[in-house]
Design brief:
Elements (H helix, E strand, L loop, with lengths): L6 H4 L3 E5 L8 H11 L5 E5 L5 E2 L2 E4 L11 E4 L6 H11 L3 E4 L10 H9 L5 E3 L5 E4 L4 E4 L7 E8 L2 H13 L4 E6 L8 H9 L6 E5 L6 H12 L4 E4 L14 H5 L2 H11 L3 E3 L2 H13 L7 E6 L2 H13 L3 E2 L4 H10 L10 E2 L6 H12 L6 E6 L7 H11 L4 E2 L2 E7 L3 H13 L2 E3 L2 H21 L12 H15 L7 H10 L8 E3 L5 H8 L6 E7 L11 E5 L2 H18 L5 E8 L7 E10 L3 E8 L4 H4 L2 E4 L5 H9 L3 H5 L10 H17 L3 E12 L2 E4 L2 E5 L24 E5 L2 E7 L8 H6 L3 H8 L8 H8 L6 E8 L5 E9 L5 E8 L8 H15 L4 E7 L3 H9 L3 E4 L6 E7 L8
Parallel strand pairs: 1-2, 1-5, 2-4, 5-6, 6-7, 10-11, 10-12, 12-13, 13-14, 15-16, 15-17, 15-18, 18-20, 20-21, 36-37
Antiparallel strand pairs: 3-4, 8-9, 8-11, 19-20, 22-25, 23-24, 23-25, 26-27, 26-29, 27-28, 29-30, 29-31, 32-33, 33-34, 34-35, 35-36, 37-39, 38-39
Helix pairs in contact: 3-4, 6-7, 10-16, 11-16, 12-13, 13-14, 14-15, 17-18, 19-20, 22-24
Length: 899
């Protein structure tokens, strides 16, 4: 459903309030008076059989009596009557409704009854159990909020009515206005993903704030969030960071993968900044609205008060910030400009008697520092220099809040004089904060958002699994496990699976009896000085917990005795244990290695997740782990490592060499590929994974599967983020050249300038339906950073030169029913068959992706494109609104579409 008919909710021409009332303090009375008093200029009607008019406005007994079709209905009546009223509205022709009423649940059947009545007319429902909707720019206050919010350019989505009204109240006191406020309520129909799609395309919305308690339809949410985040800042507050974890799975990984960690990972991959408090929502908006993403954020602090600088550094370090180390040339310049008693380092204390000129000189010098990325200017009130001239001096050096390409943040301390200084910054478009802690948090927000934006640009590929030899090796193991009715692989089976994907494992020999352990140990002791004996069982998961592991065995006789004793011990403690035998392995002794955990779990909402961190027997106690959503690439794998405390040890210290980071990334990517290729794998626990300068080796591994999905091919349909669709790469051969056709990647932005230079102005006019001379970088970035779940673009690259030669683009409605296509070929290559081949490839993709219809808007004089469309089966019709345009439509719902 997505954004269909939601325009009637946020931009209605008429509103009807059902349940409008004269009773003071009633919801119906408050809602109706808010609608009437909000300044809405469209028609307003009331429905309530008790009245003939309310506040001078006609009131009708039934929906059918309303004189015209209301665009938007606001419903505030008892819950049992709501489905009937929805039916009446649908029959009337209304396409959007806000259901204020509570008590409409799945348990009492009213929720489904309401949805059933709405569906035939695609009547969209916001709520139920919501305080309503507000669009200040058109004077619409269809809510029972206590005040009218001011008009502005920030949109608010909130699942909590109480939080909605609290934020409106806070914003009113702080002069903050809104473009839209949507109280989501129980989200029976319209959910947060729908609203993100709506707001992403809203030109009046500069930033989107969200308060979420749950995330329904996670894949839809992530797709919408990724699309919106590419266009404007999206900031989320989601409570529940320290809620009790869900029931732990049998693996260490499952025990550590709390839902909140998964939500964090989802936000990171979708470009969303997560904040921890209500006030931070607006502070973060202030920061992100001023500055582009940063590659790094080394902070230089200029202050006239040493204490304020120290407080800021403390808070900055709390938030994992980075203080800039000033270059010697910067220090030399400051020595010439500042009094001898300046601090001599960062923070740059320019002394309490600092004048506006001194502030200006220091800022100019620091702006040239090559080791500084962000500058924070602090001012403490003194009787020597008023805060206003100092603020004016700082503001005069900045442009759009930047100096020499570096963000400038300010913090003017105090109350009365500082307020006027902050006003100067507000007028100049410079971000300003009331305390050093808030300023440090703002820098943290900028860093976190920058990292999220970088993660948003990653498009990890997974290799097609159907022809992969390694995939078939593992699938044959899984088939055997499933045929035996098992969900757990034995240790030898699990290690064989890892080895097939290139993860090193120790030599692993199986002995069915204690006596057979002797021969296996003899073989192991030929390659190692000591051996390890482990229990082999289909039912015992964590062997060390039950005495199923014996280390440091030096002779075959000792191995046999250890095996016998292990068997006796387990028979006594676990009489029903399924003992299949024993596993004999070399004792791996790598004194400088680190014990790590690498695993896979399946989140109920977001599907497969990958976890990395500290391993060993105390893994649940140490709790040093990070979570990521697959698929991953080198950069995302490296980020996963860096988000753990143990990553600092892996970098090496004193005489300890750094661990082999390349081998560690390779292991993480192998796990990402395994879970992509084999959707039946539900959990994996490699613990410990030893890592040192030599590489990594998996000492123990546990894998759990869903036997019913063993034959399912990858890529894993449960991934919350659709991977780069490498399976749609192909090669086209023509007499004039050979082309690689593949899905577009963010790095292709670098190919656009040369490509556009070889397209004539007339061809650009035909493609963009108007003359274009300039393509801003932001536009090119948007064209090359796609969410493959709803958009696709295929590029044709000359095999010999790597040049971009053509692009076929598809943009689907969020509900994946209809998609618009576009096609552009380099002018010197037109008429040689490349355009035909690209469009056919796009049609084949659309058909496979389940899109029911594709359409294009074509200039009437574009005869070549019109001819191509006719021959490919498109139906052509004139655009009723633009006589010079033709709409070409291809129905893909017919099976066996011939392309």
């Amino acid at each position: 459903m997505t954004v269909r008919n939601l325009e009637f909710a946020v931009n209605p021409k008429s509103v009807v309030v059902i349940g409008a009332s004269k009773k003071p303090g009633s919801v119906g009375q408050v809602v109706f008076m808010n609608v009437v008093g909000g300044g809405f200029s469209g028609d307003i009607w009331a429905v309530n059989p008790k009245y003939r008019q309310i506040a001078g406005i006609p009131c009708y007994s039934r929906v059918a009596e309303v004189p015209r079709v209301p665009d938007l209905a606001v419903i505030a009546i008892p819950a049992p009557a709501v489905p009937t009223v929805i039916k009446e509205l649908r029959e009337k022709g209304t396409r959007a409704a806000i259901v204020i009423s509570a008590g409409i649940t799945e348990r009492n059947g009213l929720r489904q009854a309401m949805l059933n009545e709405a569906k035939p007319g695609l009547l969209r429902i916001i709520g139920p159990n919501t305080i309503g909707l507000m669009v200040p720019q058109i004077g619409l206050n269809a809510s029972f909020a206590h005040i009218n919010p001011a008009s502005g350019d920030i949109a608010l989505l909130s699942q909590s009515g109480a939080i909605t009204t609290s934020l409106i109240d806070w914003a009113s006191d702080n002069g903050i206005g809104f473009s839209q406020i949507i109280s989501l309520g129980d989200m029976a129909d319209v959910d947060v993903g729908d609203c993100l799609d709506l707001l992403a395309a809203d030109a009046n919305t500069r930033a989107i704030l969200m308060y979420l308690e749950t995330i329904p339809e996670p894949r839809k949410f992530l797709s919408a969030a990724r699309a919106a985040s590419r266009l404007k800042p999206v900031i989320a507050l989601k409570p529940g960071r320290h809620a009790a974890a869900a029931k732990a799975a049998a693996t260490h990984t499952g025990a550590l993968s709390s839902p909140d960690r998964v939500v964090d990972a989802a936000f990171k991959r979708s470009g969303v900044l997560r904040v921890s408090g209500l006030a931070e929502l607006f502070d973060a908006t202030e920061t992100l609205a001023h500055f582009p993403p940063l590659e790094s954020a080394r902070v230089a602090i200029i202050t006239n008060g040493g204490g304020a600088g120290v407080l800021t550094v403390d808070r900055l370090m709390d938030l994992n910030g980075q203080l800039a180390t000033l270059t010697q040339s910067t220090i030399d310049a400051l020595n010439r400009l500042l009094p001898p008693n300046w601090s001599g380092s960062n923070p740059i204390d320019i002394v309490g008697d600092a004048t506006p000129a001194r502030y200006r000189s220091a800022l100019e010098a620091v702006s040239k520092d090559t080791g500084t990325d962000v500058i924070l200017v602090l001012h403490c009130p003194t009787a020597i220099a008023s805060s206003i001239p100092v603020a004016q001096s700082v503001a005069s050096l900045t442009q759009n809040g930047m100096i020499s390409g570096k963000p400038v943040l300010t913090c003017w301390l105090g109350e009365h004089t500082a307020r006027e200084g902050r006003h100067v910054f507000s007028e100049a478009g410079i971000a300003s904060y009331e305390s050093p802690a808030a300023a440090a948090a703002a820098i943290s927000h900028l860093v976190d958002w920058s990292r999220a934006q970088q993660a948003l640009q990653r498009v990890p590929a997974i290799l097609p699994s159907h022809s992969s030899q390694r995939c078939e090796i593992v699938r044959s193991i899984l088939r055997h496990v499933a045929e035996e009715g098992r969900r757990l692989l034995t240790e030898p089976e699990a290690k064989s699976a890892l080895a097939a994907y290139g993860i090193d494992v120790p030599l692993t020999l199986v002995a069915s009896t204690a006596e057979a352990v002797e021969e296996a140990t003899q073989q192991v002791l030929k390659v190692a000085d000591r051996a390890v004996i482990k229990l082999l069982s289909k039912s015992v998961t964590h062997k060390s917990d039950v005495g199923g592991v014996v280390l440091n065995i030096e002779t075959p006789d000792a191995a046999v005795e250890a095996a016998r004793e292990m068997e006796r011990r387990i028979r006594d403690t676990l009489p029903d244990a399924d003992i299949m035998g024993f596993v004999v392995q070399p004792m791996i002794r790598r004194p400088s290695s680190h014990e790590l955990l690498l695993g896979v779990d399946r989140d109920q909402a977001f599907g497969p997740i990958i976890m990395f961190g500290s391993g060993g027997t105390a893994v649940e106690v140490v709790k040093d782990t990070a979570v990521a959503l697959p698929p991953l690439d080198d950069v995302l794998a490296d980020d996963l490592i860096s988000r753990t405390r143990i990553s600092h040890l892996l970098e090496g210290f004193r005489d300890q060499k750094p661990a082999n980071r390349t081998a560690l990334r390779k292991a993480i990517l192998a796990v990402s590929q395994i879970v992509a290729d084999l959707p039946s794998i539900t959990a994996m626990d490699i613990n410990p994974l030893l890592a040192d300068a030599e590489g990594v080796i998996a000492l123990d591994v546990r894998i759990e599967i869903n036997p019913e999905r063993v034959e399912q091919l990858g890529p894993n349909p449960s991934f919350a983020i659709r991977p780069y669709p490498a399976e749609w790469e192909t090669t086209l051969n023509f007499d004039h050249g050979t082309y690689l056709v593949r899905p577009i990647r963010p790095t292709d932005v670098n190919l656009y300038p040369a490509f556009l230079e070889k397209i004539t102005a007339e061809d650009l006019r035909l493609r963009f339906l108007g003359y274009r001379k300039f393509f801003p970088t932001s536009m090119l970035v948007r064209l090359t950073q796609l969410d493959y779940d709803r958009e696709m673009a295929f590029v044709a690259l000359d095999i010999s030169s790597g040049e971009l030669c053509g692009i076929a683009r598809l943009s689907a409605d969020p509900d994946h029913e209809v998609a618009e296509y576009g096609l552009v070929i380099r002018s010197d290559l037109k008429g040689k068959g490349l355009g035909w081949a690209l469009l056919k490839h796009l049609i084949a993709y659309s058909t496979a992706d389940g899109i029911r219809q594709i359409e294009g808007i074509i200039a009437r004089e574009n005869s070549a494109m019109l001819t191509m469309c006719r021959e490919l089966g498109f139906k052509l019709r004139r655009d009723p609104d633009e006589g010079g345009l033709v709409i070409a439509t291809l129905d893909l719902s017919k099976s066996g579409q011939d392309v």
